[in-house]
């Protein structure tokens, strides 16, 4: 398993370009199944999760190639409606292919995505909505078989604004005659990006970004060209890294309007930030203050995916912060590593209390999940001395050229 060797305590200075959003490209790649035509998708981040999605598309019978950040997929000749377990289990979000397969083939078969490092990843909300759409579901030993021959449009209400469930229902509904309405839908920017892709692919979709989404089914897909939105989570990761190392840098290709909760928290802690169009400038010259209380919420609240990197930043703040993780059951698995680096953090259930310290010290730590691994890496960049961060397979799922971009900003980080 590869690892980072980091010599910390170097300020990050310079400019870095934020890549396309992992959580936007994955549903769009799955959505390319529904049109039966060619999709050209630009600004794809080169991540292991994207490679896994391309493998699934090829297994389903699509022509699928990706080069230099552009994916070209033709889903004209599907050969199966089933995603095998070995491909499903490599990536949690592969369940999103189910809705696309039901829309296109009127049937679909996947295995349950296993419990993830950040807590269980149930799909009960997905399946409850599918049943309300007349999709017959058989769940035998973790293999979900769906029969959508009698699928119809429906008004479905989500008990929780689940991102994946919203996306899965949107995709299934493209194959249902009439208009499907989703209430209490997730409002994330990645849902809006999926809507924009589907509209270009010939489907009538509206309301994404609000809590009510409308999808009108059609069997007339179109050739589509689409550009993926920037990754707000990567932007937050680099912002915290620059501030933690007391550097001065510019992040290009940022959508500030996708990050208000995070930017508001940075302002609360007195961070010196300037927004100019799609550039976020940060100056970490002065030590930031602690933020009183961060509560993760569905969008537009403070994103759970930014919780760990923000906690890293708080370990060097002046004062005491409280972080409450309301979305996932086990998303504090980066705390042990931060404490090994000298952070003062106490957790009780889904609440963490962080007392800011003046410095962190290098240590050997392990990534246990994608964003927790990023949090440990940026803490290592700020820590005095050498750190080792292993289990980079988690980080590779969500950050393209992570160490190269950090080195561009002056970090002393090597992959071994
Ligand atoms: C998406 O996961 C993202 N992944 C996650 O990002 C992100 O943390 C999450 O949304 C929340 O914003 C992708 O988009 C690929 P959910 P998803 O369904 O769709 C519970 C990252 O680091 N739930 O909104 O799986 C669930 O257990 C990843 O980039 C049910 O109970 O998230 C969780 O507690 C991590 N039943 C909560 O809802 C269901 O049927 C939110 O899950 C579905 C979800």
In short:
The chain is of the alpha+beta class and 416 residues long.
Structure description:
The protein has 416 residues and is of the alpha+beta class. The protein is 32% helix and 25% strand. It has 14 helices and 23 strands. The strands form six sheets. A four-stranded mixed β-sheet has the order 21-22-1-23. A hairpin with a 2-residue loop joins β4 and β5. The radius of gyration is 21 Å and the shape is elongated. The protein binds ligand EPZ. Ligand EPZ binds next to α1, α5, α6 and α12.
Bound molecules: ligand EPZ
What class do helices, strands and sheet pairing give? alpha+beta
The coarse silhouette is elongated
Termini separation (Å)? 9 Å
What's the gyration radius in Å? Answer: 21 Å
Which regions contain 5 or more consecutive residues with pLDDT less than 50?
Answer: none
- Could you give the order of strands across the largest sheet? 21-22-1-23
Helical amount among residues, as a percent range?
A: 25-40%
The biggest sheet, with number of strands, parallel, antiparallel or mixed sense and barrel status, is: 4 strands, mixed
What value does the average pLDDT take?
96
Total DSSP helices: 14
């Amino acid at each position: 398993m590869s690892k980072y060797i980091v010599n910390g305590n170097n300020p990050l200075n310079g400019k870095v370009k934020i890549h396309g959003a992992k959580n936007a490209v994955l549903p769009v790649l799955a959505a390319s199944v529904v049109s039966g035509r060619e999709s050209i998708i630009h600004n794809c981040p080169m991540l292991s999760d994207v490679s896994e999605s391309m493998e699934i598309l090829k297994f389903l019978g699509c022509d699928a190639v990706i080069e230099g950040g552009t994916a070209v997929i033709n889903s004209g000749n599907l050969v199966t409606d089933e995603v095998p377990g070995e491909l499903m289990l490599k990536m949690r979000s592969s369940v999103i292919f189910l809705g696309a397969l039901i829309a296109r083939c009127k049937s679909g078969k996947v295995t349950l995505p296993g419990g993830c490092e950040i807590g269980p990843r149930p799909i009960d909300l997905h399946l409850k909505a599918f049943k309300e759409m007349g999709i017959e579901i058989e769940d035998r030993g973790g293999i979900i078989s769906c029969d959508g021959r009698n699928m119809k449009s429906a008004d479905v209400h989500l008990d929780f604004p689940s991102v994946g469930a919203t996306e899965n229902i949107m995709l299934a509904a493209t194959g249902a005659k009439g208009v499907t309405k989703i209430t209490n839908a997730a409002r994330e920017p990645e849902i809006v990006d999926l809507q924009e892709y589907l509209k270009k692919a010939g489907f009538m979709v509206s309301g994404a970004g609000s809590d009510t989404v409308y999808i009108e089914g059609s069997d007339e897909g179109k050739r589509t060209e689409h550009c993926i939105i920037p990754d707000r989570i990567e932007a937050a990761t680099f912002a915290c890294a620059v501030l933690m190392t007391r550097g001065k840098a510019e992040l290009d290709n940022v959508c500030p309007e996708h990050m208000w909760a995070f930017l508001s928290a940075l302002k609360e802690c007195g961070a010196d930030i300037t927004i100019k169009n799609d550039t976020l400038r940060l100056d970490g010259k002065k030590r930031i203050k602690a933020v009183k209380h961060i509560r993760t919420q569905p969008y537009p609240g403070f994103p759970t995916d930014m919780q760990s990197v923000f906690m890293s930043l708080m370990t060097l703040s002046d004062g005491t912060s409280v972080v409450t993780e309301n979305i996932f059951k086990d998303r504090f698995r980066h705390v042990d590593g931060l404490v090994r680096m000298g952070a003062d953090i106490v957790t009780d259930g889904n609440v963490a209390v962080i007392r800011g310290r003046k410095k962190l010290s290098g240590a050997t730590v392990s990534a246990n999940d994608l964003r927790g691994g990023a949090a440990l890496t940026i803490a290592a960049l700020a820590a005095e001395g050498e750190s080792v961060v292993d289990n980079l397979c988690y980080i590779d799922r969500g950050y393209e050229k992570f160490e190269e971009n950090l080195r561009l900003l002056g970090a002393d980080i090597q992959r071994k």
